[in-house]
Write a structure and sequence with these properties.
Blueprint (H helix, E strand, L loop, with lengths): L12 H25 L4 H9 L3 H4 L1 H11 L2 H22 L5 H30 L2 H37 L2 H26 L15 H12 L4 H10 L2 H15 L11 H30 L1 H13 L3 H9 L4 H29 L5 H41 L2 H7 L12
Helix pairs in contact: 1-2, 1-6, 1-7, 1-8, 1-11, 2-11, 2-16, 5-6, 5-8, 7-8, 7-12, 10-16, 10-17, 11-16, 12-13, 12-15, 13-15, 14-15, 14-16
Length: 420
Amino acid sequence: MNKQNKVNPWAWISTLYFTEGLPYVLVMTVSVIMYKKLDISNTEIALYTSWLYLPWVIKPFWSPFIDLVKTKRWWIVSMQFLIGAGLGGVAFLIPTSFFFQATLAVFWLMAFSSATHDIAADGFYMLGLDEHEQSFFVGIRTTFYRLASIMGQGILIMLAGYLETKTGNIPYAWSLTFFVLAGLMIALSVYHKFILPYPKTDVTQKDKFSFTEFFDVFVDFFKKKNISIALLFILLYRLGEAQLVKIASPFLLDSAEAGGMGLTTSQVGFVYGTIGVVCLTVGGILGGIVISKQGIGKWLWPMVFAINLPDLVYVYLSFVHPNDFWVTCAAVGIEQLGYGFGFTAYVLFMLYLSQGKHQTSHYAICTGFMALGMMLPGMISGWIQDHIGYQNFFVWVCLCTIPGFMLIRFLKIDKDFGKK
């Protein structure tokens, strides 16, 4: 039977990229909030959850081997089911006495599965659509990836907060939340098992792989002009943000006596999962619009300021502790809006650096360094905060933005790059 079929892209693009975004936000963000509510220290939370970036750091090294084993369609469905099973495992393990070590192990398995799913899904997108459809649906896929963030950081955290209040049992509340997630993910894997098309070009590539060519990709990348400055920029541009992102939620959740804002789980879900994600998305859209009109040269410095200066809102929150919840919402919204706007320059620079014969592979290497730039500072952020307190920590975060400013003047980039 010829399995090649033409499925309406609307039937699978939205769900595929929603499913791609959900595990990432669960591993990177929801896990932090869950561990904070389960009384794990900031030092341990930041250190161990930062290790979960590792699969995305090393993703460029194993991505070529995915095509050697099975089709991209097989990888997509299999990884989704494995992630669903992992979420069920987290749900079972939360009430145990050894939940921290056990759930971290499952989260790492989920992170590896999620990174593998990213590779397969992005490749399948290009195989399952023609060039015109790829262009048309690029905004759709981004939108549903963002909706996954709203679902994970917002709705599900608010659900956990509701269950905390309703049951009075925090571990039980989070266990129920992860059972819901497990059911959702397994349902999506079953849906994709039947609805994803079978592109003729989605085949194993055993005969096309060359170790020589694989290593040539890396050699060519590190031979690029001014590569050392470029890599320093990728690693250090978000030095402050990499630490802030691990401590922001614990800060909002901690009591005033501990130096935090004393918000409930549901309030944090609303602040970050709705207002934060919306502002982040708007910032990214605005960044794309202005660069497409005038090129990166005119907007590089404004974007550097945009991603770094709003970190000052956390200095304000930690010193003033405003009682008005909406002031906190506005502060987080400003920081996320600036981050979304400033992140555009970061992505454009990596695209610029990746130009050439191995553009796709070189961009994957850049994203690996990008993940490393989040992983290493994040690992020590909790230890720093626990030793100097929230107020001094957020001042420290602002000081950590200085290397990003200093490296900008050494970058070599076409000022019109990105211009339509």
